[in-house]
Write a structure and sequence with these properties.
This protein is an alpha/beta fold. It has 7 helices and 11 strands.
Length: about 240
């Protein structure tokens, strides 16, 4: 079943389907990481139905975003979302496998690449019987190395890759980035409450960047009383 929701009152509408991976907090959190400015050319790797793309466009309207999506059902919903929001001139999708990125998009044609990749290696833990849900959770359709290689191909010199991942795979992530000539530059842990261990890591890398990783203050999701923090409310467009 399809579900249509608004990012905020009067804002863009996004769509998701029960048969595909549902929207998650990690996508909203990732949308807060890139330093957006007008006229950026953005590629959303594994764009799904387009939630991350729409979040970026809601934050900065003067972007052009190209999704890359393997699943035809998800790509079709992204196209419908672009039409629904009057964004067909700024939001499009290329249907195909990011592992074959060289046949899909030109080298160095983007300023920013974003990706919410599968978190777990293939075979780790119990998987859904649905291939779509498997691919969203585990590296059954692409690996972390595949994502980084694709981003390295797409980015211009000095362009940025922003992604979200699990802290326990941080070493794998850093190694995959450097092997693709992407230098880790900013790392922001996500914690439920102040003092908790991180549950997610937001990371920016740059093509051709100089060595030097900046640790940013944690993104805290809840106050000590269990209420959403002001920053989380801003990320969800619930505060000015």
């Amino acid at each position: 079943m399809e579900h249509w929701e608004s990012l905020k009152p009067g804002g863009y509408r996004f769509v998701w389907d029960d048969a595909l991976f549902p929207p998650g907090t990690d996508t909203f959190l990732l949308s807060s990481l890139p330093r957006l400015k007008p006229n950026l050319r953005v590629c959303d790797l594994g764009s799904g139905t387009g939630l991350l793309s729409l979040l970026l466009l809601q934050r900065q309207g003067d972007l052009t975003v190209t999704g890359v999506e393997l699943q035809p059902e998800a790509a079709a919903l992204l196209e419908r979302a672009a039409e629904e929001n009057g964004l067909t001139d700024r939001l499009a999708v290329r249907r195909g496998d990011l592992r074959n990125i060289r046949s899909l998009l030109p080298a160095g044609s983007f300023d920013l690449v974003v990706c919410n990749p599968p978190y777990y290696p293939a075979g780790a833990g119990k998987l859904s019987p649905s291939p779509s849900l498997q691919a969203a959770r585990a590296e059954t359709a692409c690996t972390l190395e595949d994502v980084c290689r694709a981003a390295g191909w797409l980015l211009r010199w000095g362009g940025a890759l922003c992604l979200v991942h699990k802290p326990e795979r941080l070493t794998d992530l850093l190694c995959a980035l450097r092997s693709a000539a992407l230098e880790p530059k900013r790392l922001r842990p996500v914690v439920r409450r102040a003092g908790d261990a991180p549950s997610l890591a937001l990371l920016e890398a740059r093509r051709g960047g100089k060595p030097g990783l900046a640790w940013e203050p944690p993104l805290i999701l809840e106050t000590a009383e269990g209420r959403p923090t002001e920053e989380l409310d801003q990320i969800y467009f619930r505060a000015p």
